[in-house]
Amino acid sequence: MTPEHAALIEGEPLPTERVNAFLAAPRRGAGNGATSRNGPAPARPQTEAPSVARQRRRWATQVVVTDELARRACADRGLKVPEEASPVSVLAVAETDVADLGSIVAAALARSPAARTLLAALESEQTVPETAVRDYYDRNRDRFLTPEALRRGVTPFDGVAPEDLLPYDEVREGISRELHKAAGRKAFFGWLDQARAGVTYTYGHEHPGDPSHPDHEHRH
Questions:
Q1: Could you tell me the pTM of the whole model?
Q2: What does the pLDDT look like over 182-205, one tens digit per residue?
Q3: How far apart are CA 100 and CA 96, in angstroms?
Q4: What is the DSSP string of 107-136?
Q5: 3-state DSSP assignment of residue 78
Q6: Contact 58/103 with Cβ under 8 angstroms?
Q7: How many Cα atoms within 13 Å fall on the side-chain side of residue 25?
């Protein structure tokens, strides 16, 4: 018998029908079919082993739970709460982002407007000091070699002349954006880890990497 709720969030039930609807809806694909540290991506072959189907349900539960947690966090922050996660309305997530974020978080951000809204809010709250931007430029000179220096085969290990580097003022804004993005993701992961502490999963809906069930899979 299928339980009526997939999880309890701070004691409030998350209906199983939301996970079922998520699993049943047609998909245009997200995460490029990758598998990552958070378990198997949701590719759906015509036939699949029961263990794969069970893992897919656990994976989908995590995405739906993340969406619900994000919707609540948006409401708590006074942000406009978007519609809940949709398997159809997909914002593409780059393969590199799947690797960085993990398939569950990448899928939640792809399908959940609330998760994206919360991530944007967290990113806007981050402060990246000028010293951090400059330090990144100084420590990653290989990323800022001029095209001419690259053609000549210059590497940071050979000693780089000032004229071999793109000027700091030209790349500063891009570095700052990248560091803000990284800080925002770190804050999002911190929020999610804390928010998940209040979630209790029903049997069959555990995290795909939970070693307490026999089908668990936790890849890095």
A1: 0.75
A2: 999 999 999 999 999 999 999 888
A3: 6
A4: HHHHH-HHHHHHHHHHHHT----HHHHHHH
A5: coil
A6: no
A7: 17
Task: Kindly state the tokens that stand for 118.
Answer: 């919360």
Distance CA 76, CA 68 (A): 12
Compute the C-alpha angle 190/100/121, nearest 5°.
45
Q: Are strands 199-201 and 12-15 parallel, antiparallel or unpaired?
A: unpaired
CA atoms of 183 and 129, how far apart (whole Å) = 12
Query: Contact at 8 Å (CB) between 54 and 205?
Result: no
**Rounded distance, CA 110 to CA 121, Å?**
16
Q: What is the DSSP letter of 203?
A: T
Q: Return left, alpha or beta for 62; rule: phi > 0 is left, psi -120 to 50 is alpha, else beta.
A: alpha
Q: Using CA atoms, how far apart are residues 105 and 14, in angstroms rounded to an integer?
A: 19
User: Tokens 């989908």 map to which residue?
Assistant: 60
